[in-house]
Amino acid sequence: MATVTILKTEYQRLVDRALRYEYLRQLMEGDIFAPPPTRKAKEVIKALRKTGLYNKGFLKSIEKGLGRSSHFKA
């Protein structure tokens, strides 16, 4: 076995790429076309609001979009 020396920044870049690849591989193993676990738009909005991560404008936009969706019920 041979020893290879690389710059720390190059090593970090390679590790980052490997982790991203692994993440994508795991996502692709799952059923990416499976329907969401709920068809109730109000449940989705409630869960998003509960996280505290989204502003009111964004939540209103999501609510409007889900209202237009044929998949979600009001």
Provide a short characterization of the protein structure.
The chain has helices spanning 8-29, 41-51, 56-68.
Question: Could you please describe the fold and organization of this structure?
Answer:
The chain has 74 residues and is mostly helical. Helix content is 62%, strand content 0%. It has three helices and no strands. It has helices at residues 8-29, 41-51, 56-68. The longest helix is centred in the first third of the chain and has 22 residues, at 8-29.
List the topology elements.
Elements (H helix, E strand, L loop, with lengths): L7 H22 L11 H11 L4 H13 L6
Please compute the radius of gyration using only Cα atoms: 20 Å
Average pLDDT works out at: 88
Structural class: mainly alpha
* Secondary-structure element series: HHH
Shape: elongated
Oligomer: single chain
Helix content: 55-70%
Number of strands: 0
Which features would summarize this protein structure in a list?
3 helices; 62% helix; mainly alpha; 74 residues; 0% strand
